[in-house]
Amino acid sequence: MARPPRKLTPDRSARHLFGADLRHRREAAGMTLEKLAEVVCYSRSHLARIETAEHVPPPDLPGRLDEVFGTGEHFVRLYAIARHEVHPEKFRRRMELEARAKAMDEYAGSLVPGILQTEGYARALFRVGNPEASPDEIDEKVSARMSRQLLLRGEAPPYFSVVLDEMVLRRPIGGPTVMRAQLAALAELVDTARTTVQVLPFEHGEHALVSGGTLTLMTLDDDTSVAYVESIATGLLIEDPEAVSAHRRSYDLLRAYALSPRKSAGFIRAAMEAPS
């Protein structure tokens, strides 16, 4: 005897509403989970967990659902809210500010920033960070990480510049194949209309941000600025103007020491071709 469908709770959150609306639209269209899975190219089990809000939808699913059900941008708009709910509460304030940013400047000392990570790179980090996590839990975290990248793909994305310590390019996260794909993705963003990537080589030596982690500076839509400093297990949002200005000075000096975008592109290509 088949188990009855799990009761939905659309009033709990945007994620629950997304799942409940998905089931409603699917059943109204006379589609089984198996049939929908064939159309949108996701597994039946994955879709079932999205309907019951156990998983946040992956970034490309909402548009596919709108196409299947003829719902305009209904699921896309709902996803824009629901995608924030997978992130820890302390991180949501940063995401709210990111959505308002006109420009973002970042320094990364050891890892590729999350907003630029490939799926393989992110998956490797989540696996090693929690070896006991189930495949579903890893998938959930990867989907959340990939959803952040929509910020740089919108109609009016912020200007984004990043300075990467050479360490970021040399540590083979996920193995040679995954790392080469990540470096290739970075190379595509080195010098575009909206993005700049620069490399700070080891030969520069010490600098104000050498302790590792990341620094993100955001210029918001009201022209105010905030900073976000992140280490292995903590993240600190800084809104005090004097403190933000001090971090800005450190970043500007660091960027002055970094390689030009053209030389950085060559540096990244050389890292891709280095023997594994």
From TrEMBL:
Transmembrane segments: none annotated. InterPro entries: Cro/C1-type_HTH, DUF5753, Lambda_DNA-bd_dom_sf. GO terms for molecular function: DNA binding. Gene3D superfamilies: lambda repressor-like DNA-binding domains. Residues 22-75 form the HTH cro/C1-type domain. This is Transcriptional regulator.
